[in-house]
Amino acid sequence: MTNTASILDGNSFKASDAEGLDPRTRSLTERRRVLGASYRLFYRHPVELVRGRGAHAWDAEGNEYLDLYNNVPSVGHAHPAVVAAVQEQMSELNTHTRYLHPKILDYADDLLSTMPSAVDQIMFVCTGSEANDLALRVGREFTGGKAWIATAEAYHGNTALVSAHSPSLTGAEEMDPALRVIEAPDTYRLGDGTAAGAGAWWTARVAEAIADIEASGDGFAGLIIDSSFSSDGIFLGEPGMIAAAVDLVHAHGGVVIADEVQPGFGRTGTHFWGFERADYVPDLVTTGKPMGNGFPVASMAARREVLEAFSLKRPYFNTFGGNPVAISAAQAVLDVIRDEGLQRQALEVGHELRAAVRELQGVHPALGDVRGSGQYTGVEIVSDREAKTPSSAVALDLLEELRDRRVLTSVCGPNNSVLKLRPPLAFRSTDVPRLVEALDASLTALGV
């Protein structure tokens, strides 16, 4: 059942937590009131991070943390190659994209070379929210429909249009009246993550949503999906699990938006893009934060015929989308992933990580399921392993225990019961024992 609380409220500091804080941390949390009440902090005892390198970060007192959550600096905190590229271009020129500049064209060609040949045009923006906003508009223009399908805990961004298509924000935001919301394919509780198992179940949910749209007269626009179901609980399943559902969308004239902000850029290890691993070709591909290692750059790639329905009718201008400095950061990230073999490293180290965590299942009954691919791992925390009962309370307490042992991560899923292990791709084999030791000690401390 979908939680009515915002995804931002799971691992979140509350005003009631302030009493036990040290004076400096309490002062900083109080000063944050100038930012307004909407902003959220991680942890009951927030962390003041001041620098980072690779998969590690340091707080203001010099304490070092292992970062198991931050996909924003995708190739590692403060990667020297990205820093140098930004500094060099900033010292030369930074302006908008209504002037010619070869770097944006070179990068466009380079990034599109990683995608299926059918996806052959690209537009640059500043954020994943902007990319998904544009994609929703383009898809509606192409199909003439207005009704999208999204999964129950999906989060696609924070513009008015995108928030209204992010069901995880239900309760905090009003959803688009035409949006159809379906459950994600829960590979833990549906038996398996194959096309015949969870995939068939999910295809049936997509079929029901399409039938409802067609009966209503809303007009079918398509499906917006993160192929790893990141916010829903990380259900990657087997390659091809959701391909039949995508085929069904296309058969009914809809388009598919692959939101690659989280699973893209080599994170799943087996493939460069999440949709590749899922074995389908999307109509629109959106990227965000990891593309520039945290520098504000994002993109929407598209099939030419889909984009033309939009672009031949109206101009689009994004002042800083794809500016020379942003593109320099993005190109550096792409080069680093290749030069340092980070996709292969994600595959190998992610396998080691999950194998090591699974060994703890024999000791700690709260570890209900360990799933994922590459450097994307979901660890389901349960109160009853046989019944597969999710335990939000234990999961949130576990985050605090891990934070006290200087391991940073967060939760996802409808019950905030899934540990979301999504480190920078710089995470190495030598970091795995640190995670396992902290996780073992934390579960022991909680008696689970």
TrEMBL record:
SUPFAM superfamilies (alphabetical): PLP-dependent transferases
Entry keyword set: Aminotransferase, Pyridoxal phosphate, Transferase
Short name of any one Pfam family annotated for the protein: Aminotran_3
Organism superkingdom: Bacteria
GO molecular function: transaminase activity
Family the UniProt entry places it in: Belongs to the class-III pyridoxal-phosphate-dependent aminotransferase family.
The protein's name: Aspartate aminotransferase family protein
Protein species of origin: Frondihabitans cladoniiphilus
Source taxonomy: Bacteria, Bacillati, Actinomycetota, Actinomycetes, Micrococcales
